[in-house]
Amino acid sequence: MYTLIITLHVALAIILIISILVFQTSKGSALSMFGGGGDALFNAASGTSFIKKFTAVCAGMFAVTSLLLTIYGSSNRFRSKAIESMQQEMQRQPAPAAAPAQPAPAAPAAPAKK
């Protein structure tokens, strides 16, 4: 399930990048490098509204997959192997024995005043 969500998340990221950069309707869009403005391809209002709706749906799905990955990532099932081995090592080591308390050294006698 986790792998499926990550795959979907990466695919949505790529689709969003392409739909925002290539199919934007401004004059300086990436479609102008092929000999026409961005408005030439999607001249009808239905094309532009379709791209806007498609991008909005992809952005919403991207947000949902982000939340799902956060939820799945915080569960104990997806813990790092390094952290698990460190915790097991700490459990195996015995606690250090407390050193016996040594008395504080006696303060030297104050010199006599003249």
Chain-wise SSE layout:
Blueprint: H1 2-21, H2 38-41, H3 45-73, H4 81-92
Helix pairs in contact: 1-3
Name a few traits of the molecule.
single chain, 114 residues, mainly alpha, 57% helix, 0% strand, elongated
Give structural notes.
The protein is an all-alpha fold. It has a domain at 2-76. The protein is built from 4 helices and no strands. The chain has helices at residues 2-21, 38-41, 45-73, 81-92. Helix 1 (2-21) packs antiparallel against helix 3. The N and C termini lie far apart (88 Å). The mean pLDDT is 74.
Low-confidence stretches: none
Q: What is the ordering of alpha helices and beta strands?
A: HHHH
Largest β sheet strand count, sense and barrel closure: none
Distance between the termini: 88 Å
Coarse shape:
elongated
| Individual helix count | 4
User: What is the typical, i.e. mean, pLDDT?
Assistant: 74
Task: Output the radius of gyration.
Answer: 33 Å
State the helical fraction.
Answer: 55-70%
Strand percentage: under 5%
Number of strands: 0
Structural class: mainly alpha
